[in-house]
Amino acid sequence: MVPHETDIFSIAVTPNSVISGSGASTLRIHSTTTPDYPIAQSIDGAHKLGCHHVTTAKGGSGQVACSAGFGGEVNVWRRSEAGDWTLDTTLRPSDLIAGNKGGAPGTQEGAPAAAITKTDKTTDAWALALSKNEQYLAYTTHDGRVGVWDLQARAQLLVYSSHNRATSSFAMAVDLSQDGKYTAAGYQSGSVNVFNNDQSKLVYTLPGLAKPVRAVAFSPLGKRLAAGGDAGVISLYDMKHGEPVGNLTTPGSTTSSSAVWVMSLDFSASGEYLLAGYMDGKVRVWNVELGTCVATNGETEMSALWSVKWLPPKSERPGADTESFCAAGADRRLTFYREAGSNPII
User: Fold this and answer.
1) What is the pLDDT confidence band of residue 298, given thresholds at 50, 70 and 90?
2) For the domain 8-338, what is the CATH code?
3) Which is it for the CA torsion 321, 235, 164, 52, positive or negative?
4) Rg from Cα positions in the chain
5) Is residue 258 within 8 Å of 209, Cβ to Cβ?
6) Cα–Cα distance between 264 and 173 in angstroms, integer?
7) Helix (H) or strand (E) holding 187
8) How far apart are CA 96 and CA 43, in angstroms?
9) Most CB atoms closer than 10 Å: which of 141, 239, 259, 336?
10) Are 325 and 336 in contact (CB under 8 A)?
11) Sorting pLDDT into bands at 50, 70 and 90, what band is 316?
12) Residues 246-249: contacts with CB under 8 Å, at least 24 apart
């Protein structure tokens, strides 16, 4: 498999592909319908300064993807009937803050990625999450804001945490529940906030983590929220009452070491297992109910993992009746695993 030019910072999955974004300007789409996972499409110049986050709808149809670049912009991509991905809309930092509609590429309100110019960096977009129906995009900005954008109406729907810049904390991670009701954000301060989008308000500030939170993930039914980061612990919360229900800690780990930092989280389609990518290059599979690590994958001296994702179980890929997942990071390659085994597929 041809590696990216730089670290792969983020991956997203659809029923038949894996989309990867890196520090280079190109997005790659790998087909998961054949055993060798070939590159089906390369989108050159997708983000002039590189891409740090890519998202698709978990459990969705796989027709929409969103990516955030180091230039502060968010690009919305749509899959054509022919199967190719094309740019639909570019949202600039000013659009996300002011609620402008953005626009199609080539227009004044939606300039192509190559034309994006830097603005006040505190308004740059960072983390992204897409609702199951592919209509709502949750995003965070460097100044601590958390917003929800309506992709169909091309308008800002909600904005949370518009704090004074001097006191705000950077929201490093975000996720939407599949029904779109809740938005969860993990902050550099170690706090985790959950917002009710129907009521447009903060409903929970969750305890348990005192260091930066780099990943948050809702379970498929939205009953659990997982959060992890520099504390080296994955905290699980009940969403009915906003209470902690357990911690997942790597056996023999020392939380003072950056090796145990949790960089990425993803629930399996059934919600039974939680996939976690770590700074030490390991990817671990946790049984959520038992609170135990059931598999650890990765070479002894593997580079840091920035992103891990389960592949949809009902996709057209080979072995679709088994649990498979993909991991990516500093080694610039995608690694595919099947049935939580210790050996990669490719």
Assistant:
1) confident
2) 2.130.10.10
3) negative
4) 18
5) no
6) 9
7) strand 182-187
8) 24
9) 141
10) yes
11) low
12) 246/291, 247/208, 247/291, 248/274, 248/276, 248/286, 248/291, 248/293
Q: Is 115 strand, coil or helix?
A: helix
Distances (CA, A) of 146 to 82, 199, 244: 35, 15, 23
CA dihedral over 234, 306, 35, 27, signed as positive or negative: positive
pTM for the full predicted model: 0.88
User: Three-state SS across 12-26?
Assistant: EEECCEEEEEECCCC
The per-residue pLDDT for range 187-204, each reduced to its tens digit, is 999 999 999 999 999 999
Cα angle 138-144-148, degrees, rounded to a multiple of 5: 20
**8 Å CB contact between 126 and 142:** yes
| Pairing mode of beta strands 155-160, 171-176 | unpaired
- State the Cα–Cα distance between residues 189 and 191, nearest whole angstrom: 6
> Which of these, 61, 85, 71, 57, lies nearest to 23 by C-alpha position?
71
Would you call 306 helix, strand, or coil by DSSP? strand
Residue ranges covered by each domain of the chain: 8-338
- Backbone dihedral region for residue 223 (phi beyond 0: left; psi -120 to 50: alpha; all else: beta): alpha
